[in-house]
DNA sequence: CGATCCACCTGTCGGC
DNA sequence: TGCCGACAGGTGGATC
């Protein structure tokens, strides 16, 4: 599930428990996720204080007090949750906590805050497409998975002119160009579909066609840049999207899935006022694309 | 170099 | 019920 807004939601959920806290113990319950864990994974984390928690594209980066960076990617099905020891429950009072599936809890990080509050930060990932790696001190920006990432679609740096420049001479369809993490970093299948719908642009259109003749941004490039920024910002504000049983770190569901205009809405009427199109599903480079063939050109 | 495809996993859902 | 195939939020790495 996790695209940029979901990873940002996870970062915000973990931050109060991690920043300034000390790692007391790490349980690594299997040798690998998508990749093997680094040598001495648990040992190198144990005893460290956590300086800060950063997000870059869909990566979470935990900055430790010795300069080490823990790079965490959630893949398709990774999630974090927080657990704390419950208050003493009165005898005979049945505790109605939702039973949790702990089958795929692969890493448990035991932390203690400055106020001596103890928490467990648990990484769960059924499909194990996620991974955890180290960036050695000072080497984060030259890490092979980080160094080629493109511009963040948050803030206001991504405008029509920059987008036109990025897509200039690209023959790939817009859908593929928007998913290319070396151009724009953090968009995934859902938010690409949603941004293209907002911009009234077809996912099949050649990416280079939105760049102007002499690098002048076209109205299409301006619309797409605005749409990308708005859909990402709206999704972050809603706490991301919950698909399947994905939840935020506090167990709350994100709400943005209720705001999808086209994603996973095959056969429904196009929600654009005065458009009588039907949301259609096609497959592009092996993945579903949802769009309205009437209003998206 | 850039552009395309596949592999990596488990779980769920719909159809028969 | 049960079985089987299709599909799911991503992307590194192989291959052309």
The number of distinct helices, counting runs of at least 4 residues, comes to 6
Largest sheet: 4 strands, antiparallel
CATH hierarchy: architecture of the largest domain: Alpha-Beta Barrel
In total, the number of strands is 10
Spans with pLDDT under 50 lasting ≥5 residues?
A: 92-97
Shape: globular
- Class computed from helices, strands and strand pairing: alpha+beta
3D architecture notes:
The structure is a single chain. This protein is an alpha+beta fold. The protein has six helices and ten strands. A four-stranded antiparallel sheet has the order 1-6-7-5. The chain has a four-stranded antiparallel sheet with strand order 2-3-4-8. Strand 2 and strand 3 form a beta hairpin. It binds a DNA duplex (16 and 16 nucleotides) through loops.
Please name the defining characteristics of this protein.
N-terminal domain of MutM-like DNA repair proteins, four-stranded antiparallel β-sheet, DNA-binding, 297 residues, 20% strand, alpha+beta, globular, Helicase, Ruva Protein, domain 3
Write the layout of secondary structure elements.
Layout: H1 4-18, E1 22-28, H2 41-45, E2 50-56, E3 59-64, E4 69-73, E5 79-83, E6 105-112, E7 118-124, E8 131-135, H3 160-167, H4 174-179, H5 189-198, H6 219-237, E9 280-284, E10 287-291
Antiparallel strand pairs: 1-6, 2-3, 3-4, 4-8, 5-7, 6-7, 9-10
Helix pairs in contact: 1-6, 3-6, 5-6
The structure holds a DNA duplex (16 and 16 nucleotides).
